[in-house]
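USER:
Class, as today's exercise, take the chain set out below, and explain how the chain folds.
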Amino acid sequence: MPEMPDELISYEQIIDKFEAMTKDAESVQRETLKAILERNSGTEYLQKWNLNGRFDDPQHFKSCVPLVTYADMALYIQRIADGDTSPVLTTDRISVISLSSGTTNGKRKVVPFNDKLLADTFQIYYISGAYRARLFPIKPGGRVLEFVYGSKESSTKGGLVASTATTNIYRSESFKIYKKNIQILGCSPDEVIFGFDSRQSMYCHILCGLLYSNEVQFMSSTFSYSIVEAFRTFEQDWQQLCNDIKEGKLNEKITVPSMRASVSKLLKPDPDLADAIYNKCKNIGNWHGVIPLLWPNAKYIISIMTGAMEPYLRKLRHYAGDLPLLTSEYGATEGWIAANIDPTSSPENTIYTVVPDIGYFEFIPLHLRHEGLKLDNSVATADYIESEPVGLTEVKVGQEYEVVLTTFAGLYRYRLGDVVKVTGFYNSSPQLSYICRKNLILTVNIDKTTEKDLQISVDKATELLKEENVDLVDFTSYADLSTVPGHYVIFWELSDSLNEGIVKRCCSIMDETFIDPGYVVSRKANTIGPLELRIVERGTFRKIIDYYTSHGGAVNQFKTPRCISTNQALLDILNKNTIQTCFSTLFS
């Protein structure tokens, strides 16, 4: 699909092109691989594997080039960051380095970012946006309330710009063209997005959104957590926001000079608007439906809501009322994978359709160990048994896979670490549901607990919270090996206090919900101790965000790490703020 011109777009044209490429996904994949290899045939990395000019043969490519992880590529990428201008991974010039969030395993990945990856970003935005516009047409010249935050740029040893992937996108000229093409305006000045103080930026985003409350057509963020956090803040600050609007003067707590100056230009005394907002908030009660109440012309909220974001859906729905929640595209810092072309599906049931020309894709079939399956030529990793990768159109419905990427940005047969399930096909391109990260996150003995296992356990226990009208704000975990036997520790932050009996019941429910056979056997044999639940003070997970952003991270890319076993700094924050502890009584 060609890059979008600097002119107003035709959504129907975009859809027609996407329909055509998905009808012939296998041929598109072959051509995409050929284009990647021809473009980068002169690189040190590809020459190492002796492809001998056979760029149109996927099987030859797979037989020559090995599967790799980030660890295998790190030295090559570091050379580029340190100033090696030879064609190490790509023949395209690399002038920017993207930094991953680092919240998955505590370590930030450094990934090459080039113009082709930027073009891919907007291609997938346009595809998802075209299908979304069919159901939710946006008034030209309307506004979007975006909870987006840039991070500070730094320079690598070799003088390359290093920043988060989202910051690289927001700073690009292509982003301005994209906004022009979809005929939508933001509410906040750039100085708010790039204010580098997430608390102050969040306040100003809300304030600017209120100033344009009747013009806002939809609300967005990179991750849904950002919207939930914004409205938790709004619950505390709404009266001050009303006062700012009434007096036309910005709160003194906004101290970043550029942010303060840009927002102050938008403010003028507006007692009528302030009183209208005040009266709505004064009578709303528990804040249910506050978003459509204050932004009556908003048609939907869009963000990443799958995977690690699912725990925040209940609170987001509370704020959103009947306003539709739409999940955005599927990708990672390393590259894009799929678009959401069915905006009607709920976040929990979101299906992503692979874009066949955005990269070359392979899928490693995965089978859970405790399913007892033994496969020929299989390899065991963590809690999965895996077999040989298959191509995009060779996947089977109902099967789980790990995603493998080959991209125009210099990654070849790169194991992304994401587990997806094939739910069907759109024309001949597979449709995927996101399952989890493949990483094993908790282990003490012979147990192998994944992020998905942890999520199921927490979900089961928090059903009790609904009866008490208490929300789980956030959670994480670690395997405590300092005790004999070792045991799992789960940290919870709650919206209100709970009596000790309910906390103990929640703890035992989590303990009995872990289904990994190694965990169950070890608990019964007392080679893993009773699960421990620690309740932390309100605001503790906000302190984790503050720690993360103070070390160069951006709120845009923040995902609460579900295991902190390797991050002593976060463990110290959580332990310091623990106010209540209990142990499971299961098997006692």
In short: The two ends are 62 Å apart (CA to CA). Residues 137-323 form one domain. Residues 1-7, 371-382 have pLDDT under 50 and may be disordered.
